[in-house]
Amino acid sequence: MFPTNEDPEIPICSAKGCRAHAVWVLAWNNPKLHTPQRRKTWLACEEHREHLSSFLEMRGFLKDVVRLTEWEDGARGSSADG
């Protein structure tokens, strides 16, 4: 059973019906719809990272999988740089 996510500030997994805390960021891009630099994101818990990654990979959309903490650190660094 997953922990209940009552706090809207805590990111949750993007898998349908999952309420677990997100640990991973799956950065993706649909080349038919998005410019090459654009990154959409899904969040994943440990249990759903592989499944969501496979779904995106099969379609050629998956660009990167990083820990949520690293993604957030990168976002803070890039906003501080301009």
Task: Characterize the structure shown.
- With 82 residues, the protein is α+β, with helices and mostly antiparallel strands.
- The chain has one domain (1-82).
- Helices cover 28% and strands 20% of the residues.
- The protein contains two helices and three strands.
- It has helices at 49-58, 68-80, and strands at 24-28, 40-44, 62-67.
- Strands 2-1-3 form a three-stranded antiparallel sheet.
- The longest helix has 13 residues, at 68-80.
- The radius of gyration is 14 Å and the shape is globular.
- The termini are far apart.
- The mean pLDDT is 87.
Mean pLDDT score: 87
Q: How many DSSP-defined strands?
A: 3
Number of helices: 2
Largest sheet: 3 strands, antiparallel
Which spans of ≥5 residues are poorly predicted at pLDDT below 50?
none
Distance between the termini: 42 Å
Note the run of SSEs as H and E. Answer: EEHEH
Which outline best applies?
globular
Strand order of the largest sheet: 2-1-3
- What is the percentage of strand-forming residues? 15-25%
Structural class: alpha+beta
What is the share of helical residues? 25-40%
Which structural traits does this protein have?
82 residues; alpha+beta; three-stranded antiparallel sheet; 2 helices; 28% helix
Summary of the model, kept short:
Helices cover 28% and strands 20% of the residues.
